[in-house]
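Me: I'm a chemist; would you kindly supply a protein sequence with its structure tokens?

Assistant:
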Amino acid sequence: MKNYIIILLVSFGVYSCKTPQKINTSTSEVRTATQDTVRIANDKLEYEIIIIEPGFNFWLQSVAKPEGYYSQQFLENRNWLYVVEWNNRVLDPQRYDSNLYELQIDYNPSIDYGYEVNYKLYYYFIYFQLYYKQQLTGFVPRI
């Protein structure tokens, strides 16, 4: 009789447990993609930068120096150096991983893109170098 009670309790316990509900992955993937996408656009100059990198937006808000820390001139100079090296690596897929360097960046130093664009582009290069353990120039990436 004692064994029947134990079996009954165990059976009831197993029966009463619910299986976990399936999480809708498409919704969570869309949220993650939306949160990790940084879009910068200016219709007047007809340019658009879209950065889709998991974790970059969080890193930008939590680790990067606040806007105004570096001058726009400093950011433009560094971005130009980073863009030149980036584009060289895109054009040399035998030497550099084509999964990391997929597309060229069309950055013209004679165009004033504004502080926000230069700030986010600079910190994307810093994030990229730290996260993927790459060094685009002779400068050690600094936050």
